[in-house]
Amino acid sequence: xxxxxxxxxxxxxxxxxxxxxxxxxxxxxxxxxxxxxxxxxxxxxxxxxxxxxxxxxxxxxxxxxxxxxxxxxxxxxxxxxxxxxxxxxxxxxxxxxxxxxxxxxxxxxxxxxxxxxxxxxxxxxxxxxxxxxxxxxxxxxxxxxxxxxxxxxxxxxxxxxxxxxxxxxxxxxxxxxxxxxxxxxxxxxxxxxxxxxxxxxxxxxxxxxxxxxxxxxxxxxxxxxxxxxxxxxxxxxxxxxxxxxxxxxxxxxxxxxxxxxxxxxxxxxxxxxxxxxxxxxxxxxxx
Length: 287
Prior knowledge:
Distance between the termini: 33 Å
């Protein structure tokens, strides 16, 4: 039961719905119009099963967690070509991210025996050093090359935790949170979703001082947020991306495409010129 709980917390999807899968769609963002236009749609995963958790290194260079032969691996998409980044392991890799100031990629691995840790991966290398040895990291972001801010599984909950890799110090702030973490552009802050009250609240934290501030409440069911390089906050729900304008949410882009009616995650390119959107794709039921 414990292993099942860890898996469900990590993926935030239920595999019982076996006739659904997720795909990652890449769009260019044209901001020259009064309202942004998303065009040049590409399905960069085109793969049955779980494909999610994208992160950009640059325009047209993305890593994500993708299913290959029944196993979740780190996949790198580069200008139209996809390949597996990591050497296959016994476990499944999730939440891959480029490591700030270091070579390689970090990812959470869930092993068949239930062990869940954050590891360091390099291409064509079988060694995967553990980055945080004694914590069950679920979701996270790199604040700097020695600091990770994220969600650890503590008991049956996700807690806001700061890991200092240089000192090997861990600070559990004991706040129940969601899965979405991002550095706020041009600030020394990280955003997160506080789930301790209703409605859930987007907040910021300064990892150096631990000072936390409210940003904006979320609509019910919103799990994923992200930032444009110009400092505008986006959120996703259903078939719509919303943007924060002052203290309210406005529509940034709403999709009529049937493949984009259940957005589960999204990522923004460092340039702000591209967006990668993960959506659940419903498969026709077999007769």
